Amino acid sequence: MHEWALAEGVISTARKFAEENGLTKVTEVVVVIGELQQVEHDVLEFAFEQLKTKLFEEAKFVLKAEPAKFKCRNCGHEWTFKAQGLSEDISEAIHFVPEMAHVYIKCTECGSPDFEVSKGRGVWLATIKGEKDE
Amino acid sequence: MSDPRIAVIEQRFENVGKIIAVSSGKGGVGKSMIATSLALNLRDRGYTVGLLDLDFTSPATHVILGVDGLYPEEEYGIIPPLAHELRYMSITHYSLDEPAPLRGQDVSNAIIELLAITRWGELDYLVVDMPPGIGDATLDTIRLIPRIEFVVVTTPSRVAYQSVRRMILLLKELGIPMSGVVENMVMRPSDYVKSDVEKLGLEYLGSIDYDEAVEESLGDVDALSKTGFYKRVGEILPDSL
User: Fold this and answer.
1) B128 assigned to some structural domain
2) Which of A68, A133, A134, B5 is 20 to 30 Å apart from B125, CA to CA?
3) For the whole model, what pTM was predicted?
4) How many angstroms separate the CA of residue B30 from the nearest CA in chain A?
5) From the CA of A29, how many Å to the nearest CA of chain B?
């Protein structure tokens, strides 16, 4: 996913959560980022800085990376994702739409494209901390 | 906890007027031809139009449009490239002509991803070429794209129509707006589809005769626009939306 789209999504989701739970100030947002998306943390942090509203003035955005792992549905082999060695075009295709991994990556044991991304596929909000008015 | 992609999808359609899903319960009925011709017909009338190909396993609109090597521009997301003046988004921008063997959950994720990153900008119409059937992709599209309206395509074949009919019943049950039904590839006149569609309380938008020139026109939009098929799509569809 694109870093700016992701930052917009995180801010919108966190704002909605804050509204629903009566938070007047968000102090911390923890985002887990699956490695398969190859999100550039610097760009994402910059996007957060640009997009954050007053509600997030004091918020710390914590990014946690989760390594991507694959499990072959055909032979059961498990292996980890390595972006190195992929061409720039393929790497970019997977960055924008991670399911493109099924187009370009095959099981390292049996060559099947039918594998599961068992870890590190998506990006999600893990926790949000904030304060309520007394 | 929460998937941040869902929150941005609705914003992506903020400045899009009508969103039309060209859909069918059955494959091979000419959905992609009708979706592409509808988008081009609307363009001919001076509207700004987008075309989104959501048939990830059998994408076809790029073949009909004759476009190759298009790549979206990156600017705070993805800007769909222009193809014959249509803002055009297809998974083939990323998968090229390689097979995309995706299971249900992967299809859902790829749809969510594409909807979350694509910035359509201002459009009068967005035409969506839907995957056939009532599986994950159709259900996700209904769930995620706001204000979506369906144009349902069938052929006169009873085999096709029975699947299409099940789709109509599902859409009715879900309360999804339908503009009506188009009967494509008609070779001899029959009331079979029309009478049943009307019995279901839907509008029968019209029939399109089988046109051999369509196959010849693939990849050549000028040739396509001269076919009887294209003109007929222009006669029956834009005014019914």
Assistant:
1) yes
2) B5
3) 0.93
4) 26
5) 12
